[in-house]
Amino acid sequence: MTSRTPLLLGASAGACALALTVAGPSMAATAADDEATGMVSVFHGVPGLTVDVYANGDRLLGDFKPGTVTKPQALDAGTYEIQLFKAGEGPDGTPALEKKVEVPEGADATIAAHLSADGKPQLTTFVNDTSKVDAGKARLTVRHVAAAPAVDVRAGGEPVFKGLTNPNQESTVVDAGTVNADVTLAGTDTVAIGPADLNLKEGSDNIVYAWGSADDKNLALATQTLGGMESSPNAVHAGGTGAAAVTPNSSDAWLAWAAVTGLVTLTGVQVARRVSDRRG
Predict the structure, then answer these.
(1) What residues does the DUF4397 domain cover (predicted)?
(2) How far is 138 from 141, CA to CA, in rounded Å?
């Protein structure tokens, strides 16, 4: 019923998606385009450094901050060269991140800019499960993208996912409704993030990101909601939302853990931007 999924697609496709949403019809998909497209969202989960985004040497986006999930955007399939600079330093400076990226045809994915378990900035692409769910049900997906050890995820005080590690995800189908969720150190009752109420609507995929840095005590939750998974053939696709619900760490457990392990967090690249609504 659950699945754990590591890196699945080209690691920098998300940065491309973010940049292309403002690049114009020559790069981004439009209603009149007949070219193959993919649906791409971007989650930014790296604390501390604002960046500017360049594509093929052109400045496309600036001053991006952490804690944001963009709404899904249809983009032309293709390969692009993306550079990310500390805000105000490009393109003559040294890029904080530079990648050739590809938007695959037919993909529905979210790209997460985040810290690895040992605090290094990275990009991970997650495939979004858009398969149908039964009436009265919703999908709950949790992604561990924090500089932190393995965690358990609880709903209503009961473990739903155990031993989740960075940069993996787990997913299951649950009853629609409001669920009180929190994140604990794996195998313990020590709360690291939360609790937070999640409103799981029927026919939705509710993606929860555990992000930030344990060492810096800025761990938080952010949520992404994708609609249109209703089993009824007459259901209207609800599209996606880019709202990020941030729930700070409410416990000093992470500080104690960081002191023992000596985790050093490296501030990395941040990519975030609200983009146009996903077409139903």
Answers:
(1) 39-154
(2) 10
Question: Tens digit of pLDDT for each residue in 238-255?
Answer: 444 444 545 554 434 433
Q: DSSP state, 93?
A: S
d(CA 111, CA 10): 9
* DSSP H or E stretch at residue 177: strand 177-185
Q: Is the pLDDT of residue 178 over 60?
A: yes
Q: What is the CA radius of gyration of the chain?
A: 18
Query: CB under 8 Å to 99, separation ≥6 — which residues?
Result: 11, 12, 15, 81, 82, 123
Expressed as residue numbers, the domain containing 47 is 13-261
Query: Is 276 inside any structural domain?
Result: no
Measured between alpha carbons, how far is 273 from 245 in angstroms, rounded to an integer? 15
What is the token pair recorded at 36? 């193959």
Partners of residue 86 on adjacent β-strands: 51
Locate 109 and state its tokens: 């994915």
> Is the Cβ–Cβ distance between 247 and 196 less than 8 Å?
yes
Q: Which residues 6+ apart lie within 8 Å of 6 measured at CB?
A: 167, 168
CA distance 22 to 28: 8
